[in-house]
# Entry
Amino acid sequence: MRAAARLLGAVLLTLGVVYLGFAVDRTDFWSLFGAFTVAFAGYLLVVRFVGEDRVTSWIVLGILLRVALVFAFPRLSDDVYRFIWDGQLLVAGENPFAHPPAHYLEDTAAATGPDTALFSRLNSPDYHSVYPPVAQAVFTLAAWISPGSWYGAAVVMKVVLLLAELGTLWLLLRLLSGYGLPRSRLLLYWLNPLILVEIVGNLHFEGVMLCFLLLSLYLLTRSRYGAAAGAMAFSVASKLLPLMLLPFLLQRLWKRPFWTYFLTFGAVTMALFLPLLIGGGFLSGFGNSLDLYFRKFEFNASLYYLLRSYGFYEVGYNQIARFGPLLARVAALTILIIALADRKTDWRSLPGMWLAAFVIYLLCATTVHPWYLAAPIVLCCFTPWRFPLVWSYLIMLTYTSYTTVPYRENLWLVGVEYLLVAAFFLVERGYRTKERPARISHGPRL
# Structure
């Protein structure tokens, strides 16, 4: 029975992921969501019936699916075109933060041969780049290795993401062992269809960010504070979000080499960003784009959509310029307060606190794309919480927005998504509250 369930799960997961990687049309929502449902059903069967003695074979399945997706051009996201554009600019000696892409078509002397065909595929040609230096380095590598092929450039970037995912796998194995947790928990992340489809499949750099973030956590548990700070700097230089996790280290590092960690983090971060700062235009262009992100972009939000409705009732128009930055400050302040109130000094509780920080950020964000859940999914492997997994299924409802051009959200589905996730969280919280703590061996103390 268990063997048959696992076999069925493997078949369903493979069929769903391969279809989503190689054949799906983003505008055909029911085909997309149906395939994801098939893959997710297979995923649930696997994680439900797998035993500790069979984890290795499922790790291999996750590797094979990722290797296959390396050769599938992204079908659910058009961000890849901006990655290639930025890479081509850097290869040509231009700073991608100095001007938005539209500038290079208006002033053809500003760059050597702007790619007009590529420009037509960009989703935000009037905005400066928002991708930090580690991501930009990968874009440059891809554009340099494959200057004349979008597909080739995408494969180069996917190979980097595949290597990052393999690094994440190794770190999950080491961390789970150190925490005394079952190895099978890593499958919650490793075989999750959203992770498979969105990281390597659709080329999102959360995969690189998470690899460096887990490396930093692993090094912290080994008391290698300088190296941990460097890894955290690389995580921030891949995606800026890990900056909000630093306050949770204050208490834990206070009686350890506090200044060693934070001075090293600052020095490595500065070194990584320095090449972009030297080129000029980085602070204004990057800062302008981040400001616009909170003031103009909106997609699959929760608290913000409630405030937006109030704003329409109050003044009759969208007040994102007011509520977006306000919610960002609320998220930052809430995370800081929780971090300062956290009196724990062990490393075991840190993933749970980081999970809380990411969830708070996402609830206050004006834009929540499916791949934003990568961090909550990997962090839940170290905690009893499973609501991020439910969310990883329901968030795929957002792809119904792309059935029209320009895209239009179905707010009823957005409401269903967040209400069901909230309901599952409350049920889970009630269960955790009533659950009597069991006395088990947790392995070596971290």
Remarks:
- Confidence is low (pLDDT under 50) at residues 437-446.
